[in-house]
Design a protein that fits this description.
The chain is α/β, with parallel strands linked by helices and 285 residues long. The protein is 35% helix and 15% strand. The chain is built from ten helices and ten strands.
């Protein structure tokens, strides 16, 4: 593991105001729902919660994999909550969200990876208001074709699966495989070409620009047209160390190169995360 950097540059010193979070936390608690914002320790949580925006996390808060960059708890998951789809839908309606992002922990213990639970959650939201745009951010589901078919027929408008980093650095994504993730994205695109396909990567592990550009070409060839690029920030000293704090101009460079490749929308900045300003992606569709 690389030695951790001792300080953050000026462009990464966003202040989080706890007062911005309290009202949203009450709503989430009352709705008995979880968010990836909280579980992954997102640095944008104060900004988003203050705007009544949250990205929901279903299938519980315990992951069956052990990626060294992720703050989500790992271990033996609990049984699924059958009321969770409706709880999420009611909370979405309460918050007045017009574009909602739903992700999950990875559940390798489930035969379908949790696909049916994703499906039920989307259908519960659409039953309340079919005009709400739903974005899913899914794990690889071990390339289970039936599970991926269930996902693409859920009614979601955009489906994402993050490839995270370049092949050379895949040791940070334990239990996952670069080529597998590409095949998942490609399969989603083939199963339903009308759905917007999205992925996300992090910079700061020591990747080179030529490796990132090759990754972007791979995503394009797989049918991915939407991409998020953000800075990796280590959740703790026990997680993967940050090798480099990437300057904003490099994020802009990669965005421009990607748009030249033909991507429909790329959000690329140090504080970009998969679901950050998610509504902007489909505005360009």
């Amino acid at each position: 593991m690389e030695k951790a950097l001792s300080y953050k540059p000026l462009w990464l010193r966003k202040k989080i105001k706890m007062s911005d979070q309290s009202a949203m936390e009450r709503v989430l608690s009352q709705g008995r729902v979880h968010t990836i914002c909280e579980e992954a320790m997102c640095p944008n949580i104060g900004e988003c919660f203050s705007k009544n925006v949250a990205s929901f996390m279903i299938l519980g808060t315990i992951c069956t994999r052990a990626c060294s960059f992720c703050a989500v708890s790992r271990g033996i998951p609990l049984a699924l909550n059958p009321y969770e789809p409706e709880n999420v839908a009611q909370t979405v309606l309460h918050l007045g969200l017009r574009h909602v992002v739903i992700t999950s922990s990875t559940r390798d213990d489930l035969s379908d990876g949790g696909a049916d639970h994703f499906y039920k959650t989307v259908r519960a939201i659409k039953a309340l208001d079919d005009s709400i745009l739903v974005e899913l951010l899914i794990p690889d589901m071990k390339e289970n074709l039936l599970a991926l078919e269930r996902i693409v027929h859920s009614g979601a408008e955009i489906i994402g699966h993050n490839i995270e980093t370049v092949p050379r650095l895949y040791h940070v994504r334990k239990g996952s495989d670069y080529e597998c993730s590409l095949r998942v994205l490609g399969t989603l695109h083939i199963l339903n070409p009308d759905i917007a396909i999205k992925s996300g990567i992090m910079l700061g592990f020591g990747e080179r620009d030529d490796e990132v550009l090759r990754l972007m070409e791979d995503l394009w060839e797989a049918g991915c047209r939407y991409l998020s690029i953000g800075q990796y920030l280590s959740p703790s000293h026990k997680h993967e160390a940050v090798v480099e704090y990437v300057e904003p101009k490099r994020f802009e460079y990669l965005k421009n190169r990607g748009m030249e490749m033909g991507f429909s929308h790329i959000k690329s900045s140090p504080y970009t995360r998969s679901s950050y300003m998610a509504h902007e992606y489909l505005e360009t569709k």
